[in-house]
Write a structure and sequence with these properties.
Length: 284
C-alpha cells in the first residue's frame, strides 16, 4: 500500500517509514494522522517485521502539525457556528479529533516491535510527541527539539507531557514547554532524550540501521516481551511490573527459543526463532 505522507519500504526484517514532504518541512497534514496508525498496524499485522525505523527527507525531521490543516480541521468542527445545538458539540468534536491524533502516536508504542527514530534538523511540536512514543531516538549534530505549541498560544495535547516526563526531568520539561526554546542535540543527549548523536544524516541512517539490524537478530518473542514489560513497568508500580513479567514468561517463555539463541551465539549463524504470529481479526 502507498501513502501520501510518507514512504514505507521493507529491507529484510526491517521496515523503514520515511516522511516525504521536505518542501513543507514534513509538516503533519490531515492524511498523516490517518495513515500513520494504518501503516503501523499493517506492518505489525504480518508478524515479519522485527524493527521499524522512522526518518525524514530534507534538512528537518518535521515541523509538527500542519497549521493550515489544523485551521481547516477547526473550520470543519464548526468554528464560528451560529446554530446553538451544533455549537454545543464543537468541544466534543475537538476532543474526538485530538484522541484520534493521540492514537496515531500510541500506535508506535503499541507496535509489537521496537521503533527507532532517526532525527535531523528540527523536531518541532508534534514531532516531539511522535519521537517520545518511539522506543529509541538518535539524531544528528544539527538536530534540535522544541515544544513549539506555546509559541502559537496553545497547550501541547497530542502526547508530549505524559511521555516526555518519562524521558526528561520535570523541571526541564516545564522549561521547554513554558518557553518554547530549542533543546539542542548535546543537551538532548545529556538528559537521555536521544541515545546517540551522529555527525550527519548519512552517518545517522547507517548507525540506526545497524542498531535495528542488531535488534532484528534477536528472538522476536523475547523482544516483544521486553517492549511490553518496559512499557508496562514504566506506567505501573514495581510489584505490578514483577507480576506482569512473571505471567508473560509463564505463558510465552519457550525452551526452543532459548536453545535457538544459544545455538546462534555459539555458531555465529542467524537464530532459528519463531516469528511473531500474524494478527488476525476474530473469525479469520
Amino acid at each position: 500500500m502507498t501513502y501520501t505522507s510518507f514512504d514505507l519500504s521493507y529491507e529484510g526484517a526491517l521496515a523503514h517509514l520515511r516522511l516525504n514532504n521536505p518542501d513543507k518541512r514534513n509538516a503533519m497534514g490531515l492524511d498523516f494522522w490517518r495513515e500513520l496508525p494504518e501503516a503501523m498496524a499493517a506492518l505489525d499485522q504480518k508478524g515479519k517485521t522485527r524493527a521499524v525505523i522512522i526518518s525524514a527527507e530534507g534538512p528537518h525531521f518535521t515541523a509538527g502539525i500542519d497549521l493550515g490543516a489544523f485551521a481547516q480541521l477547526a473550520a470543519n468542527l464548526g468554528a464560528g457556528e451560529t446554530d446553538v445545538h451544533k455549537k454545543a458539540n464543537v468541544g466534543l468534536g475537538f476532543i474526538e479529533n485530538v484522541k484520534a491524533m493521540q492514537a496515531a502516536f500510541t500506535a508506535l508504542e503499541q507496535c509489537r516491535v521496537p521503533v527507532l527514530c532517526a532525527i535531523q534538523g528540527g523536531c518541532i511540536g508534534g514531532g516531539v510527541d511522535m519521537v517520545s512514543a518511539a522506543d529509541m531516538r538518535y539524531c544528528t549534530e544539527d538536530a534540535y527539539f522544541t515544544i513549539y505549541e506555546i509559541n502559537i498560544g496553545m497547550t501541547a495535547d497530542v502526547g508530549t507531557f505524559p511521555r516526555l516526563l518519562n524521558l526528561l526531568p520535570e523541571g526541564v520539561v516545564r522549561e521547554l514547554a513554558y518557553t518554547g526554546r530549542k533543546m539542542l542535540a548535546d543537551e538532548a543527549a545529556h538528559y537521555g532524550l536521544v541515545n546517540k548523536i551522529f555527525e550527519d544524516e548519512k552517518a545517522l541512517l547507517a548507525g540506526v540501521n545497524a542498531m535495528a539490524n542488531e535488534i532484528a537478530e534477536k528472538a522476536p518473542l523475547a523482544i516483544h516481551g521486553i517492549k511490553q514489560a518496559i512499557t508496562y513497568s514504566r506506567d505501573h508500580n514495581t510489584q505490578d511490573g514483577l507480576d506482569r513479567i512473571a505471567l508473560w514468561n509463564a505463558s510465552l517463555l519457550q525452551q526452543s527459543e532459548i536453545m535457538a539463541a544459544m545455538t546462534a551465539k555459539q555458531s555465529g549463524t542467524p537464530g532459528d526463532f519463531a516469528p511473531l504470529t500474524p494478527i488476525k481479526k476474530i473469525g479469520e
